[in-house]
Amino acid sequence: EKGTYPHYMLKEIDEQPGVIRKIVSAYTVEDELTIDADIKTALSEADRLYIIAAGTSYHAGLVGKQYFEKMAKIPVEVHIASEFGYNMPLLSEKPLFIFISQSGETADSRQVLVKVKELGYKALTITNVQGSTLSREADYTLLLHAGPEIAVASTKAYVAQVAVLAITAYVEGKSKGLDIDFDLKAELGVAANAIQTIIDKKEEIQQVADAVLATTRNAFFIGRGIDYCVSMEGALKLKEISYIQAEGFAGGELKHGTIALIEEGTPVFALASQKAMSLNVRGNMKEVVARGANPIIISMEGMEEADDSMVLPAVQELLTPLVTVIPLQLISYYAALYRDCDVDKPRNLAKSVTVE
Ligand code: F6R
């Protein structure tokens, strides 16, 4: 039930700190983050991971690639489910397939699962729904523990997917004896608190949304590295519920085409959470500002500059997707409200897409 909330989406955004805490406790055994031994074995035996998903879950998969490659040193490919099944790439010798799906019912993902099982490969499903089709038909399941997600636009499931992917990659990296120089359990707690701090200031985010998105036809989201993954998710959220045309892309790509679309007042959101890349992103923003764009720079405490629109509490650098996505979710929520859109049930969309 949505109780006193005007929309499920806002309720689900608010639940996110609790979801992270729940996941940490669900994946903790004797004070240590843990995943099932057979899943660890499957990960250790794989020479490459193939992450298959759609929409928001695909965007979580892109973050997951960073986690598995950086923490567990396993190469990863991330594929859009509807593309993979009918145009299968050349596979490695010992692939492990990871399906990410909130509902566990997405037909595009299921057709891939059926094909890879026919080929004799192992599959792990990361889902919010125990007993769902993708969970039943895969060899292994990791649950998201996010509770029912009712709003069509996915929020807490994305954050849960990112957290579970981080735990899986971290546990695998640790069990391989790799050097990971932070305590993920503690850092997820820090991230949960950071999300709460951002949510507590949602009125400020509403002001930004009302000011820059009230009348615009389009908006852009840029980032580099892991911020690029989140910028695509920010654009998808905005498109889905406010019907504003939005695009998320790599900051460096601006000058290769998209900058032609910048007009006086075009909103450009930039994520600048990665130390090695934030100066380049800021450079990209100067290029669009010089052409009249309305810049909204979202940075982290300790890395902020004077004119940044939002400065988020600092978290472990790999975990920034958990916090940078929150203002983007809220911005799309408030833009949809301002434009009088049906937030929880956007036109033409269904919560679970059971046709290919
Ligand atoms: C976006 C959204 C969709 C889903 C996609 C996959 O907010 O909800 O893009 O992420 O349809 O759904 P699942 O995760 O259930 O496979």
TrEMBL record:
Keyword Repeat: yes
UniProt catalytic activity: D-fructose 6-phosphate + L-glutamine = D-glucosamine 6-phosphate + L-glutamate
Record GO terms (molecular function): glutamine-fructose-6-phosphate transaminase (isomerizing) activity
Enzyme Commission code: 2.6.1.16
Class in the EC hierarchy, top level: transferase
Active site: 351 (for fru-6p isomerization activity)
Main location: cytoplasm
Places the protein is found: Cytoplasm
Domain named SIS: residues: 39-178, 208-346
Biological role stated in the UniProt entry: Catalyzes the first step in hexosamine metabolism, converting fructose-6P into glucosamine-6P using glutamine as a nitrogen source.
UniProt protein name: Glutamine--fructose-6-phosphate aminotransferase [isomerizing]
Species in which this protein is naturally found: Kurthia populi
Gene name per UniProt: glmS
Boundaries of the shown chain within the full protein: 244 to 599 of 599
